[in-house]
């Protein structure tokens, strides 16, 4: 194992938040850093140029404090691809869009519809859509007003983001959403231990694939530069790497309403602390082994609800959640509903609802039912490898840096450590090794890690930022070993 902190230098500590810092995001040029916190605020920082950072000069100045819109924890922030707008997701069941004007930052849109805390927000690569996810088990897709797509200049006027789709498929709290970096496919991860891939065929959004393999809550996702590989991190102490491959034709089970569907639980006092409670679930320490396609395969779940719709009252939206769809997407039968429901309700579940990875059989030994149907066969993601044996507690965040000869994965963990992984062999992502670690990078859980964007062909030191339960944001200068 490499020496502690090898290649790392702490270059800035931002202490302006008064409570735990949940998330952070760099704009596309890396000149602005947004951070969000349980103190109900978003802070925007001006950072050093790439040239200054290479010389080790990383000064950060606070340029804006946004604290007059949300009345509960702000869980996540995301910049639009052009860097003109900033989205924030809050535990007050809403998301907001901010725009930079000559007079300062102004909230120009409110995204409403979720029945419980909004946990994640993400912009599509074109900037034409914004996705949100929530404890109500749903993912919403909002469309950016056409005039705002064409005219990106600041206006300071209220914008109306129409709801394009509500995606119901997760059995539990949805933790994060992430768009494919080059195509408009949406990925979501959940307390139900799965990653789901959503796409649009014609005018309908549908569930394309469910990735199973994690044994506990999936907290975060990250892509390599071209979207050929996906990293997912979990409460099960692992990082899983998935590889995009041409899809094989897979029989589809007709869409139907699940027997075990239930409405979102009523809000209770202190629901915003559910994140903290979930973090404290006991997990067994993983062994240092690597799973490959020889020992596991991806699984698909039944498509049972997807609908394009206009915004409607929350009650109406909840009532529509059981609507089935005739959209044709790749799917196969899922595990028995009873087993799935039982596992979803058990915080100590260890994947009992999954089907056999090796044989494609369910727990009862029966082969998955096959019915002839049209399939969506553009691509599929299959398991490539698992990074395990390094993290001592839940892994909450992951980010992937792909630039030049550098492919590095950074992870933020509940053991307070920041880790960097690199491919064991150049040109292959089938095996990874730890390149560096900063022990006790924060004095408490690290909730988020993000690499600073760099220009094409960049050579030299890299910057990354981390956010923690200790109320601070730390910016690190990292020099890869090779």
UniProtKB/TrEMBL annotation:
- The residue ranges flagged as biased composition, category Basic and acidic residues, are 256-296
Residue runs in coiled coils: none
Q: Which UniProt keywords apply?
A: Repeat, WD repeat
- Transmembrane residue ranges: none
**CDD domains found in the cross-reference section:** WD40
The stretches annotated as WD repeats are: 14-55, 67-99, 111-152, 167-198, 211-243
Any Pfam family hit: WD40
Family label: Belongs to the WD repeat CIA1 family.
| Biological function | Essential component of the cytosolic iron-sulfur (Fe/S) protein assembly machinery. Required for the maturation of extramitochondrial Fe/S proteins.
Protein name stated in the entry? Probable cytosolic iron-sulfur protein assembly protein CIAO1 homolog
Q: Which organism is it from?
A: Chromera velia CCMP2878
């Amino acid at each position: 194992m490499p020496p502690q902190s090898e290649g790392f230098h702490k270059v800035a500590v931002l202490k302006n938040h008064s409570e735990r810092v949940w998330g952070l995001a760099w704009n596309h040029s890396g000149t602005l850093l947004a951070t969000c916190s349980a103190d109900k605020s978003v802070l925007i920082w001006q950072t050093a140029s790439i040239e200054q950072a290479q010389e080790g000069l990383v000064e950060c100045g606070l340029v804006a404090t946004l604290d007059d819109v949300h009345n509960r924890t702000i869980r996540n922030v995301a910049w639009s691809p052009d860097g003109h707008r900033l989205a924030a997701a809050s535990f007050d069941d809403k998301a907001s869009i901010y725009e930079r004007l000559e007079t300062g930052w102004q909230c120009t849109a409110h995204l409403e519809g979720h029945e419980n805390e909004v946990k994640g927000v993400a912009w599509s690569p074109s900037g034409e859509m914004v996705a949100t996810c929530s404890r109500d088990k749903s993912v919403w897709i909002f469309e950016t007003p056409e005039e705002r797509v064409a005219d990106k200049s600041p206006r300071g006027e209220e914008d109306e983001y129409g709801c394009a789709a509500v995606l119901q498929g997760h059995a539990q709290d949805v933790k994060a959403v992430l768009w494919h970096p080059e195509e408009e496919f949406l990925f979501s991860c959940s307390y139900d231990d799965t990653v789901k891939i959503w796409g649009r065929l014609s005018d309908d959004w549908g569930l394309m694939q469910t990735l199973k393999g994690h044994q506990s809550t999936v907290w975060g996702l990250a892509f390599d530069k071209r979207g050929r590989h996906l990293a997912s991190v979990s409460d099960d102490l692992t990082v899983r790497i998935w590889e995009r491959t041409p899809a094989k034709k897979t029989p589809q089970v007709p869409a139907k309403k699940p027997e075990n569907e239930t409405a979102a639980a009523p809000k209770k006092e202190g629901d915003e602390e559910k994140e903290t409670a979930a973090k404290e679930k006991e997990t067994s320490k993983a062994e240092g082994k690597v799973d490959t396609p020889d020992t596991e395969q991806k699984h698909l779940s039944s498509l049972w609800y997807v609908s394009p719709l206009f915004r409607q009252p929350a009650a109406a939206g909840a009532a529509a959640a059981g609507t089935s769809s005739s959209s044709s997407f790749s799917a196969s039968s899922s595990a028995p509903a009873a087993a799935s429901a039982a596992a979803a309700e058990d915080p100590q579940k260890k994947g009992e609802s999954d089907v056999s990875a090796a044989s494609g059989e369910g727990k009862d030994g029966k082969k998955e039912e096959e019915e002839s149907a049209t399939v969506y066969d553009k691509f599929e993601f299959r398991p490539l490898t698992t990074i395990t044996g390094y993290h001592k507690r839940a892994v909450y965040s992951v980010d992937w840096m792909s630039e030049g000869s550098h492919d590095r994965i950074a992870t933020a963990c509940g053991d307070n450590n920041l880790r960097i992984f690199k491919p064991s062999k150049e040109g292959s992502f089938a095996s990874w090794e730890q390149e560096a670690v900063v022990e006790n990078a924060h004095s408490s859980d690290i909730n988020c890690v993000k690499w600073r964007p760099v220009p094409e062909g960049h050579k030299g030191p890299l910057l990354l930022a981390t956010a923690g339960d200790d109320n601070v944001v730390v910016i690190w200068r990292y020099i890869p070993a090779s």
